[in-house]
Amino acid sequence: MQNKLDDLKNRLQEIEDLNSAGAVLNWDQATYMPPGGAPARGRQMGLLSRLAHERFTDPVIGHLLDDLRSYEESLEPEHDDAALIRVTRRNYERSVRIPPQLMANFNEHAALGYQTWTTARPADDFAAVQPHLEKTLDFSRRLADCFPGYDHIADPLINFADEGMKAESIRVLFADLRAQVVPLLRHILDQPEVDDSCIHQTFAEVKQRQFGEMIIRQLGYDFNRGRQDKTHHPFMTKFSLGDVRITTRFEEDYLSNGLFSTIHESGHAMYEQGIDMKYEGSPLAHGTSAGVHESQSRLWENVVGRSRAFWGHYYPQLQATFPQQLGDVSLNTFYNAINKVQPSLIRTEADQITYDLHVMIRFDLELALLEGSLEVKDLPEAWQARYQSDLGISAEGNRDGVLQDVHWYAGVIGGSFQGYTLGNIMSALFYRQALVTHPEIPSQIGRGEFDTLLGWLRENIYRHGAKFTADELVRRVTGGELTIEPYIAYLRGKFLE
Amino acid sequence: MQNKLDDLKNRLQEIEDLNSAGAVLNWDQATYMPPGGAPARGRQMGLLSRLAHERFTDPVIGHLLDDLRSYEESLEPEHDDAALIRVTRRNYERSVRIPPQLMANFNEHAALGYQTWTTARPADDFAAVQPHLEKTLDFSRRLADCFPGYDHIADPLINFADEGMKAESIRVLFADLRAQVVPLLRHILDQPEVDDSCIHQTFAEVKQRQFGEMIIRQLGYDFNRGRQDKTHHPFMTKFSLGDVRITTRFEEDYLSNGLFSTIHESGHAMYEQGIDMKYEGSPLAHGTSAGVHESQSRLWENVVGRSRAFWGHYYPQLQATFPQQLGDVSLNTFYNAINKVQPSLIRTEADQITYDLHVMIRFDLELALLEGSLEVKDLPEAWQARYQSDLGISAEGNRDGVLQDVHWYAGVIGGSFQGYTLGNIMSALFYRQALVTHPEIPSQIGRGEFDTLLGWLRENIYRHGAKFTADELVRRVTGGELTIEPYIAYLRGKFLE
User: Fold this and answer.
1) What whole-number distance in Å separates Cα of residue A102 and Cα of residue A113?
2) Chosen from A12, A13, A14, A17 to mutate, greatest number of chain B CBs within 10 A
3) Is A40 in Cβ contact with B280 (below 8 Å)?
4) The pLDDT of residue B232
5) Which fold has domain A102-497?
6) Catalytic residue at B265?
7) How far is residue A272's CA from residue B198's CA, in Å, rounded to a whole number?
8) Whole-model pTM above 0.90?
């Protein structure tokens, strides 16, 4: 049995290594690659991805999993070997259900779609992407249909990113959240408008970068096992548990963008850096779901990084870094500026109150498209209508409307957005639980100390990697099911203070 | 037949893409990778290299080459398809003659050897590498023995790097060269010593970098299809014909190092950037031999970059970049400083006259080791003796002696060094031929114009990639065989002026 397990582990490690090599090529493309490298790079990444997929869907993997079933059943579910076999089987069964030709056609379509989108968005040209999106919708339904027996056609797609979640339960969760957030937003907008001009001055990029890196080093991001580089669209990527990198961007006339993007990505990265090294090279060496991953980026970005306690400690250092810009700006003015609530068009720049409304609009439109109650040609109008009704604003044209997010243009329609709000909900849930054990955490944050919080997150979440699903993790950590209550309490506490 | 050719081309492109992916991982390791990334990176590069080797030695490649033989023979040798089949067959037959297990064992041994060397060199500890080198010598002989019928046991190893060259012919060539260089060196050393203190001041790295990049851009290095990054040991690497990168290093207290290393690597890179795009993804899309490659780095570094005409144009710009350091230094003083001849211990820092003596010492010692007339344990002593007799100096210990170059510690013994001097010889040979057609080149260099020279090199050398061997290329370009005469004439002209 040990031979079979070793065989499986060796195969999985090679697959992980092929995927990691692809990730290095992708990182290079997004950071340093000269323009001339693009054509070959697409081909090279496609090859690595195909080789990894071929190896993972090799029937030998299926046979090994069959042979290992009795061993798996002899173990406690929490045993590492049991978890490895379980997670591998889940991924394997998912991979082999999708016909290779369908997957290849979809990948080619998605790559083309991304190219189309990169020119269509600046040109505000929805017509250019419409036929593409119609095909994407068709592909998305066909991918979902590889998993018959679903309650809602979006369920298999949601399951890719957030294992175990379903359209209906998310719809209920989001409806509850909306019922709480909308009155909160209305209340806030009734107050005098916050002056956030202090963060819209000129901030030299090199100093922004130094300050941001100082911050995330203190939070606990390990630069011996990572680094930060510049890119257009910030992301976290991992080449092994010893090399977890982040990328960021800076706007010299808007301090928040680079600073909070840096902290956000460091949250994703600290999750991956915290995974137990014994899982290296296996499918367990990954964050467990889109939602849990986002819970960690948002926890560090918002719950910690936009808190009053945090800036009580760091604001004098920020003032010393930018004395001309912030020397005469009070902590209170700065704190209010970085937490200003104001309906806006762009999701990634939204404040903590309106952010989830952006997500819900996309989630609802995805479901409507998949259900067939909305046609792609009517999508821009539906988008505008929802922004008007939910946020009271609407974009001129589609560039900052339905064309703003890359997800639908380079991936499936369905399952792309719920993780962001699930992450927000879980960030507050996990943070509250950490405080039950360590009520001293907020005052530590006020002294720039994060060891207790990071240690608790590592012990309870990070080290497990993909061993437990999001649901299982929530139950293990809180003893209950996923609930919006801590998140609502957090938002009310922060924004009604 | 077209189907077979397409099949072969597709397979070759995948193999090239796997090797290119490995090159990206290697580049990243040498430039940006954090320390924590090392263990997995070695594994990942090993996997890509193994996959590429497995695919290339697949018997299907052999069958395709057999099937394509009649087609190949129906074509002129210069036809692209004929060249592709010929070069692929040559590489294939070389690859399949080496037993996979021998290759794998050697690669593992070499990786370990590199690790050992990285600590043994700073510790001046030859004893630590001696048993390793003994094994390397054994491996090198076994690799050579995979190619029976050689005249000298070094021939197959030399052939890996410089197709068609043999130990005996190189020995003759080098003996002739030595007979010319030694009296020249003696004559130069009889002159008053050159004062090169002007290039040993403090030169800010950022300005060195800007100046160097300005220079190579004007030489013709295309930054849209390449970039320059910092590393410990400068190198050129290629991920596709659209992405040919160089790396460099700077010493703030020694101007020559960064500047000429930058020009040197750009020479390698302009060669690769100049290969005809129709060869992309095939074995033809590479420089043809170590010697020809080095001829281009040395041509641009020395024949152009250390010439009086070149600095007649660029020295005022260098003075403007470093006014404090060079404002009062005359062109003549600077020119003499960058061309100062002085026997020294380190090959990579040697001047143009002594450089080849460093190479010949290594070449002779390699042959003696392979022949069995020298034992590894006696290598340090033999090294010291040769440095004393040939250059009149010797190092204390072995750190700057036999431990200085990585080649024997991370590769085979044999065939590692001759390319450097073959490159010097060919650099003058090709340059003289360019001047036959374009006598205006030197005066163009004096105006900072390089289009004619680069155009000639592209037309006659670069665009062909690996289509012709070094010998064939020399014959095509000069109408004759490789000869040291133009190189000697160049050295005498320059250093006896």
Assistant:
1) 16
2) A17
3) yes
4) 86
5) Neurolysin; domain 3 (1.10.1370)
6) yes
7) 51
8) yes
